[in-house]
Write a structure and sequence with these properties.
- The complex is a heterotrimer of chains A (about 300), B (about 325) and C (about 325).
- Chain A has a single domain, classed as MetI-like (MetI-like fold, Orthogonal Bundle), CATH 1.10.3720.
- With about 300 residues, chain A is an all-alpha fold.
- Chain A is about 75% helix and about 0% strand.
- Chain B is built from 12 helices and 12 strands.
- Chain B folds into 2 domains: about 240 residues, Rossmann fold, CATH 3.40.50.300; about 70 residues, no CATH class.
- Chain B has an 8-stranded mixed β-sheet with strand order 6-7-8-3-9-10-12-11, sandwiched between helices. A 4-stranded antiparallel β-sheet of chain B has the order 2-1-4-5.
- In chain B, about 35% of the residues lie in helices and about 25% in strands.
- Chain C is α/β, with parallel strands linked by helices.
- The longest helix of chain C is centred in the middle third of the chain and has 18 residues.
- The chains are: A mainly alpha (about 300), B alpha/beta (about 325), C alpha/beta (about 325).
- At the B-C interface, helix 7, helix 8, helix 9 and helix 10 of B face helix 7, helix 8 and helix 10 of C.
Chain lengths: ~300, ~325, ~325
């Protein structure tokens, strides 16, 4: 028996296994309708944000007073706004800002939330401090707190990211913490301790990787939430400073003309809705795919 | 061998629809339970012993489950009864107790209330009479300080006491059949001894038929009069308890008996081992289901499924080689 | 199983004296209102190469005992001398070194392996933690151990959920073996497994013991399995060790009334040929509030007045046979 196993080419086995495991994963991904639809929507929006500007004929900030408040036409697919700017161009450029802000917030708050959540699950005294701070932040409606923070920080894109990240971090931290608390009681953590592993090793190599799936799911929802808060802040004039075309700014510009030029609010509004639906579908799909309690386990 | 059976299971097949396709957990199981008999159903996890019990009472969600075959009880086929009629059978005529009694008791009512409720549903008596009966039943199950227990909630009792309460509940309904699914598995040995003594006692005094589902051959040997051995959804052997332990015919039964560390086994010898593991129900072997792990298996076993056939006067076996095994004996068992 | 007489070999591998582990129960204001006396004044020794079986019913403290000895939880009082050095006095560095020698196999084969790691990574981790070998050496060591516990090299890249309970328990055993330990605490290693798989694992443990000269502290509630695998047995009841003896002596003539009842409660597989079962009255008292005097007196068929007042001390009633009971 020993001879046979010693001579086995491990790399070969690894390749074959990886292939098999990837095939199974692929099957599960494709069978997950909301994941696929959500992914397609988000991918489309990201592609538009990145490559869209190459195909646009109008500069998003180029004013054309003659053609102001024109409805959708062959020249301006989504019409023009009160200053004659092409709405389509503004939405495409706005996608860069809005999706960029959402993504940055998701990444930053995931990172902070992971650290806060993991450490407060592991050290009791730290838990008391950090979770009271989190409770404090969560006690405010998110938009209100973001508004206040913007007032303190000043209107810049980077400040929008900072403010919304502060609002979002506790939500990630909560999820990570509750997951980590459950993991801490699992025997494999004790088993690793019995091997002589340090706390840092247990935290980062054993507990943290197991919280990642919940964290990623939560992060997609935060992504969506951040786009909404950014839009709301900009709409209220406390977000991305105009004339930069974030989706919220475009909406804000359109609100005065809502009865005269519906396209100024309809198209950016629909884009936001599409992005949110895409992200939420994607998040739901991911949850089904990654949740170890769902069908993926033994049965 | 005995008078008319109380409960008769004929060719029961239970299948579930799962994400990975249809799974047949119980595949053509037949047995009968005589009046006042204790029938043991043994097997390892996944053998379908619990699924059989749950199918008898139709406890599965029937949107995902299909039952075939017949379960005869008091002249009725339970499987063809309308769902509403099953409610009066469950609890009323056939009671079931589980491994974890805590989940079968309602946490917000006292023990006394719950048993009294069972009596009031089934019998036309006053509350006071019901309460008196509850006390009587609790005394019968040997629970310590029964008056005090009546006013307590399930979480205040220990595992052994909860199991006694469940038994009292079955008695309250004057069930004719008690199905006990691993009733002592979660209990400590000294408490297990108490519960087993209680079940034997009730069986003798009240003539209640008991189906005892367990993985513990020791428990079977001590309380059961007849035994059904299951493997991968099928009955592989059925016999009275004395013959089964004296002369197990199916290679699986033999292996199972030899592999447990008996109290008098030789400690210097390695334990007997059944090679391999129980296959998944998703990939049931062709032919005899035990063939891949069986020391006697040949090509016939691997291609054709044997039937459950009578051997001797009290034993049924599902094995192609039972005759040979019977003739040559299992010298080492 | 003792080796011929050099002083080092004569010394027990592990010498536990007066071990206590109390868990505080905190009231509303964070003050300790009560204590769960999980392990109360337990002493025993582990000889080199033997298997010491620890039996008792749930809540008797046997698992806490095992975990305390490995310092997975801090003791309240007492000492545990491993190779002459008190485990409870060790600093971090010494503790880490000790953990190469003392390993553990857990009950639950499902939660004791990290679900996100491949078997190879799980088994290499102990070597990484202790800085043993190069990556290539670690891998070949894993492959070696995998075959020794009855698994195959192909399993190296698999995830835990791809294995059955018995196979996972083999992986758990392999992990404990990676650092060449001398002592393994087996905490109910087979109680979560099917009967036919139990015997496979028990045989494996015995075979590995012979191969690597291991010493086992075997904690279980299944008396027939403990009898089969152990050289000596200790019986615990409500945090106390009530009896310890060589296995054969214990089964031939159990002294403590609790041991007698416990052994007689084990169902035997001979229908009809049943010996008299001593059915104990009542339930196991809560370890929050153990009875005064002898902890067993509330259920003991032979209890007298002295049992209610005085805690019996452990006495040696025959060579190597210790009993804590006023009857002796």
């Amino acid at each position: 028996m020993t001879d046979m196993t010693q001579d086995i080419d491990l790399q070969q086995v690894k390749k074959a296994l990886k292939k098999e495991q990837n095939r199974i994963l692929m099957q599960q991904v494709l069978a997950n309708r909301s994941l696929v639809i959500g992914f397609v929507i988000i991918a489309l929006l990201v592609l538009v944000a990145v490559f869209g500007p190459l195909f646009l004929t109008y500069d998003p900030n180029q004013m054309d007073v003659v053609n102001r408040l024109k409805g959708p036409s062959a020249a301006h697919w989504m019409g023009t706004d009160n200053l004659g700017r092409d709405v389509l161009s503004r939405i495409v450029y706005g996608a860069q800002i809005s999706i960029g802000v959402g993504f940055a917030v998701a990444v930053i708050s995931s990172f902070l939330g992971l650290i806060v959540g993991i450490y407060s699950s592991y050290y009791k005294w730290l838990d008391h401090v950090l979770m009271r701070v989190a409770d404090g932040i969560m006690a405010f409606p998110g938009l209100l707190l973001a508004l206040a923070l913007m007032a303190a920080l000043g209107g810049r894109v980077s400040n929008v990211v900072i403010a919304v990240s502060i609002v979002a971090t506790p939500y990630i931290a909560r999820v990570v913490r509750s997951e980590a608390l459950a993991l801490k009681e699992q025997t494999f953590v004790e088993a690793t301790r019995a091997l002589g592993a340090s706390n840092t090793r247990i935290i980062w190599l054993h507990i943290a990787p197991n919280t990642l799936s919940s964290l990623i799911v939560q992060a997609t929802f935060i992504f969506a939430e951040a786009i909404i808060i950014e839009a709301a802040l900009s709409f209220l004039g406390a977000g991305v400073p105009p004339p930069a075309p974030s989706w919220g700014n475009i909406l804000s510009d359109g609100k005065t003309y809502i009865f005269k030029a519906w396209w100024m609010t309809f198209f950016p509004g629909m884009t936001i809705v599409l992005a949110i639906i895409g992200l939420n579908l994607f998040g739901d799909g991911l949850r089904d795919l990654l949740d170890p309690h769902s069908s993926r386990g033994k049965k | 061998m005995q008078a008319k059976p109380v409960l008769e299971v004929k060719n029961l097949r239970t299948s579930f629809r799962t994400e990975r396709g249809k799974v047949t957990a119980v595949d053509g199981v037949s047995f009968s339970l005589g009046k006042g008999e204790v029938l043991g159903v043994v097997g390892e996890s996944g053998c379908g012993k619990s699924a059989t019990a749950q199918s008898i009472l139709r406890l599965f969600d029937e949107t995902y489950t299909t039952h075939e075959g017949e379960v005869w009880f008091e002249g009725q086929d339970l499987l063809s009864l309308p769902a509403a009629a099953m409610h009066s059978v469950r609890g009323n005529h056939i009671s079931m107790i589980f491994q974890d009694p805590l989940s079968s008791l309602n946490p917000v009512y006292t023990i006394g209330n719950q048993i009294a409720e069972a009596i009031l549903i089934h019998k036309n008596v006053s509350r006071r009479e019901a309460n008196a009966r509850v006390l009587e039943l609790l005394k019968l199950t040997g629970i310590p300080a029964p008056e005090k227990r009546m006013g307590e909630y399930p979480h205040e009792l220990s595992g052994g006491m909860r199991q006694r309460v469940m038994i009292a509940m079955a008695l309250a309904c004057e069930s004719k059949v008690l199905i006990a699914d691993e009733p002592t598995t979660a209990l400590d040995v000294t408490i297990q001894a108490q519960i087993m003594a209680l079940m034997e006692d009730l069986n003798e005094k009240l003539d209640m038929g008991i189906i005892l589902i367990t993985h513990d051959l020791g428990v079977v040997a001590e309380v059961c009069s007849r035994v059904v051995v299951m493997y991968l959804g099928q009955v592989v052997e059925e016999a009275d308890v004395v013959s089964l332990f004296a002369r197990p015919l199916h290679p699986y039964t033999q292996g199972l008996m030899k592999s447990i560390a008996q109290m008098d086994c030789d400690r210097s010898q390695p334990l007997h081992v059944i090679e391999g593991t129980v296959p998944s129900l998703h990939s049931v072997p062709a032919g005899c289901r035990f063939a891949p792990r069986c020391p006697f298996a040949d090509d016939l076993c691997r291609t054709r499924m044997p039937e459950l056939e009578q051997h001797g006067d009290s034993q049924k076996v599902r094995c192609w080689h039972a005759e040979t095994i019977l003739r040559e004996g299992n010298a080492d068992a | 199983m003792q080796m011929p007489d050099t002083t080092r070999e004569d010394r027990p591998l592990l010498d536990v004296k007066g071990l206590k582990k109390f868990f505080p129960v905190r009231g509303a204001l964070g003050t300790t209102v009560q204590e769960v006396k999980a392990v109360n004044d337990v002493s025993f020794t582990l000889r080199r190469g033997e298997t010491f079986g620890m039996v008792g019913e749930s809540g008797c403290g046997k698992s806490t005992l095992g975990r305390t000895i490995l310092r997975l939880t801090e003791p309240t009082e007492g000492e545990a001398r491993y190779e002459g050095q008190d485990v409870f006095e060790m600093d971090e560095a010494q503790l880490k070194r000790m953990r190469q020698d003392m390993q553990m196999v857990f009950q639950d084969p499902f939660s004791s392996l990290n679900p996100r790691k491949r078997i190879g990574a799980i088994l290499e981790e102990p070597l990484v933690i202790h800085g043993i070998g190069t990556p290539a050496e670690r891998t070949s060591k894993v492959l070696d151990i995998l075959t020794r516990v009855g698994l195959q090299a192909e399993h190296y890249y698999r995830f835990p959920h791809e294995f059955s309970g018995g196979q996972r328990q083999r992986i758990g055993i392999a992990r404990a073996l990676m650092v060449n330990p001398k002592l393994i605490v087996c905490d109910e290693p087979v109680s979560a497994l099917d009967v036919s798989i139990q015997s496979q694992i028990i045989n494996l443990l015995k075979q590995l013991q012979a191969e690597f000269g291991l010493t086992y502290l075997f904690i279980a509630h299944d008396i027939s399995i403990v009898r089969y695998i152990s050289d000596r047995i200790g019986v615990m009841y409500l945090g106390r060790m009530v009896e310890q003896a060589e296995t054969d002596a214990m089964f031939a003539a159990p002294k403590h009334p609790y041991t007698q009842a416990l052994l007689s409660s084990v169902p035997i597989t001979q229908p009809g040929a049943r010996k008299e079962r001593i059915v104990l009255k009542g339930e196991i008292p809560s370890p929050l509030d153990p009875p005064a005097g002898c902890v067993f007196h509330t259920r003991c068929p032979m209890a007298t007045d002295v049992c209610k007042q005085k805690t019996p001390q452990s006495k040696e009633v025959a060579a190597g046979h210790h009993v804590a009971c006023h009857l002796y």
